[in-house]
Amino acid sequence: MSCLQILRPWVFVPFLIILINCVKAEPIYHEKYYPNGKGPFPAVIALHTSGGINTIKHLIHRYVDDGFAVYLPDFFRRPGLNKSLRMHTFNLHRKEIEQDLSTIVDLMRDDPRVEHQNIFSVGFSNGGFWVCYLAGTLQVNAGVAHYGVWKANYGAAFRNPYPMKYFSSSGAPVLALHGGEDAIQKIRYAEWAWQEINMLGGNLETHVYPNAGHAWDRKNSSIYLYIRDVDKNAHKRTIKFFRKHLK
Prior knowledge:
By secondary structure, this protein is an alpha/beta fold. Helices cover 26% and strands 20% of the residues. The chain has a seven-stranded mixed beta sheet, sandwiched between helices. It is globular. The model is unreliable at 1-24 (pLDDT under 50).
């Protein structure tokens, strides 16, 4: 709601009315999943692809089965983004999405069923970009980007300095898992970005699956090739990385 405050009548200031913005923004749409029990549990903020929140829902149970609470925000809904408008994510709406995801992390820290000192992020494709933001600003203990966005623009390789600019020597660790045959986020662009991150002193680990393409975890897709062994190994590496950075 918004509030209108008028000066007390005995304060003589002709024609002066003060408007105070009391609007409290509601958090973006998000879903919550918990393991059995009261907790508290370590937690993961799971960040979707440019295809939207439904593209990673089939993966959420894995993190719950491994003992993690999961927050799944839809960061496309408020700015009205979709797959065809995905490039606006990284420039036009970047600041807005940063704020929205930070709000979700704040909610996680206030959740009595979440270990506030043990919050992690995992992102897929577009979501991998935002893993870099959350880790770079120390809002999570660590993050993992699965086939993430390392070149957030068309055309020239480094027109957009993000997500590289999120990294510094003071950031939380990030693990990048990428396919050597990725036709969407080509490995050469990812490697150029990783080199720049290393120059910035960023805390980055990488692992490349030589024969994997984009979205290796997407079963029954007419676009992407599902690779069961890579899918299982990527999740295993992710959980191992999170547990390494538990406090």
